[in-house]
Fold:
Amino acid sequence: MKHITIKFLFYAVVFGALIIACAGTRLTHTWVDEARRGKPVSDILVIGVTYKEKEAVRRSFEDRFVAQLRAVGIEAISSGDAISIPTDLKLEKDDILNAVNKYNNDAVIITHVVGKEDKEAYTPPDRSYGGYYGYYGRSFGYTHSPGYTRTHTFVRLVTNLYDVKTEKLIWSGKSETSDPDSTRQAIDDVIKVLIKDMQKNGLLSPK
Structure:
């Protein structure tokens, strides 16, 4: 009985650790212009790119990005507040230029979704080993106690930071969020990771 209890606790801990490892947001790829490292921007126009059915999510993303930037001392404004968004959601270059001039932005951040994927992960049942009866026990357990399948959702975004004057790319990051609890939580987690990496590269500084 004690052996079974210890074994059960072991698998419970391992399974819990796997769930924790799968959930969350991480940067899978980043790039920074070495000539701009340590030369920060301080006032940003935030632009989210999406399609009509996700317009509310785009506005939420922009607003929450602006809020988190302001929380670390960076001036920022969303495209939704700075520009009259057309019905097809496509901004013209003049729209963006007029906005950055009006609000004195020195940088533009553009984020868009590059993929959403559902993957199934199979966890086999516990099986013992050792000799022919061990193999029999393993086969019996597999037959009578099949494993389970869990679906993991992965959302991937690309975020680019551009200098307004030169229009050059300063920083780029590809993020991956797995098994988000909610859209709002996923947005907050992504933004937090993006800001942290840009700060690490000396690209964000209050005025």
Remarks:
- The chain has one domain: 2-200.
- The radius of gyration is 24 Å.
